[in-house]
Amino acid sequence: MNTRDNVSTPKSSQKKHQGGRKTIDVLPDPEILEAYDYIVEGSAQQIMDMFVREQKHRHEWELKALRTHHLSTVLGQWLGFFICVSVFVSASVIGVFGNQVLAATVWIFGLSIIVMAGIVWMYAKHMGQRPLFGRPQLRTHFRPVKDQHNPVESGAQE
Length: 158
Known about the structure:
With about 160 residues, the chain is mainly alpha-helical. It has a domain of about 70 residues. The chain contains 4 helices and 2 strands. A two-stranded antiparallel sheet has the order 1-2. Helix 2 crosses helix 3 and helix 3 runs antiparallel to helix 4. The longest helix has about 55 residues. The N terminus is likely disordered.
């Protein structure tokens, strides 16, 4: 008989399925922490310290990602505004100092590009492509969901 068959995997490292998503518990159960601490003195505290450091790192990473997202959004809006202004200023300069037909053409094409960009933005915002314009979803896979119907959770093991 293989010894692997007799060893049960701790609940903390088991993968669970909830709504098509796999989740892994971050911390072991208190009994497992107590067993670690019994074997190696202070190991439970080391595991807890490691968890605190990892959580702090995740929060810093998420804050940095949110700041980057905000900066890129504001930068994109300013660059779009400057492109719009430059198209209309160049059309005005061409109209005053050059050919009025060419200036009208640049003005019309510039206006149509701006209107099309606005339509695409409105479509993406209101028709379901929220990740392009909404807050980035960063921590959904770090939050394990407890499975109420898992036989391992309820204590009924094979």
